[in-house]
Specification:
The longest helix has 15 residues, at about 295-310. It contains twelve helices and eight strands. Strand 3, helix 6 (about 130-145) and strand 4 (about 150-155) form a beta-alpha-beta unit. The chain is of the alpha/beta class and about 300 residues long. Helix 5 runs parallel beside helix 6 and helix 6 runs parallel beside helix 7. The protein has an eight-stranded mixed beta sheet, with helices on both faces.
């Protein structure tokens, strides 16, 4: 049974409804019906795991789960932030599950994952923002399935000293943190975050481990301009970010930030070329691009691009 947006997002309950634009043909996806999708769903339920695929209503869930690719969301299912774009439930956060890191490792083993993406809700209530839980999850996966490469998509760890170091020192293969939108729109779209704090996080990862791949993504269709996207790309390159993702924002409910426009595919191609020209090792840019979509294949492309850059 669907949960009403008022229950998932109590902070938005009194907000006026925003308009829902009709989706163009290029943004439509098929409903998930495959047997592999159902099996992946059953595994997540059996292990008591949350996935951002479900919680954030990702349009690619049918495709990814049919291929046994699921992005696990740790630290519970309730976020302490109230971003205007996000469909993850907000409110009083869950207690940490001490068995969650082991269950994530078990899921990776049972699915036979070559690459896993681990993300989380924001946990401003925790002293370290959940960094130690990320590190323990990485350690458990390494112990059980050492061949699996690991990508983390972490919160911003705002005002959480040494949390970035804790995660980096655990040794993920890719460190992802999304800027989400251009700085002018932060107050509307991501009010609990700070643009330059997020940039500093990405730069700090490179200071700790220059060889670690870093990644960040944004949504478009929120009201940004191409010039603002270009400047954001320059900011990411100044922070030495290797990989950028760009996808269309899709409005979860009428209580969320409205879609300003549906960006046509040719503009996504233009942004990809612009990013490549600025020196990213890889740019994924399309209406349905999401941070963890095709993450395993993209990781292989990242490695190849770095080797080519080094002339090997």
């Amino acid at each position: 049974m669907a949960v009403s947006p008022e229950l998932r997002h109590p902070e938005k309950a009194r907000k006026p409804d925003t308009p829902l634009l009709r989706k163009p043909d290029w943004i439509r996806v098929k409903a998930p019906v495959s047997e592999e999708y159902q099996n992946t769903r059953k595994l997540m339920r059996r292990l008591g795991l949350n996935t951002v695929c479900e919680e954030a209503a990702c349009p690619n869930i049918g495709e990814c789960w049919a291929q046994k690719h699921a992005t696990v969301m740790i630290l519970g299912s309730v976020c302490t932030r109230a971003c205007a774009f996000c469909n993850v439930a907000t409110g009083r956060p869950d207690k940490l599950d001490p068995h969650e890191p082991a269950h994530v490792a078990q899921a990776a083993a049972e699915l036979g994952l070559k690459h896993i993406v681990i993300t989380s809700v924001d946990r401003d209530d925790l002293e370290d923002g959940g960094a130690a839980h990320f590190a323990e999850t990485i350690t458990r996966i390494r112990a059980l399935t050492p061949e699996t490469t690991i990508e983390v998509l972490t919160p911003d760890f705002l005002k959480k000293p040494r949390s970035i170091e804790t995660v980096v020192e655990a040794g993920p293969d890719v460190y992802n943190h999304n800027l989400e939108t251009v700085p002018r729109l932060y107050r509307q779209v991501r009010p609990g975050a700070r643009y330059y704090n997020s940039l500093r996080l990405l730069n700090r990862v490179k200071e700790i481990n220059p060889a670690m791949f870093t990644k960040s993504g944004i949504m478009v269709g929120l009201g940004e301009t191409l010039e603002e996207v270009s400047q954001l790309m320059d900011d990411l390159r100044a922070a030495e970010v290797d990989f950028m993702t760009i996808g269309q924002y899709l409005q979860p409910t009428r209580k969320h930030h409205h879609v300003d426009r549906f960006v046509p595919p040719d503009e996504f191609l233009q942004m990809r070329r612009m990013g490549q020209g600025k020196g990213f090792l890889l740019v994924a840019s399309s209406p349905l691009t999401r941070s963890s979509h095709h993450a395993g294949e993209d990781f292989q492309r990242l490695k190849s691009a770095r080797l080519a850059q080094l002339g090997r």
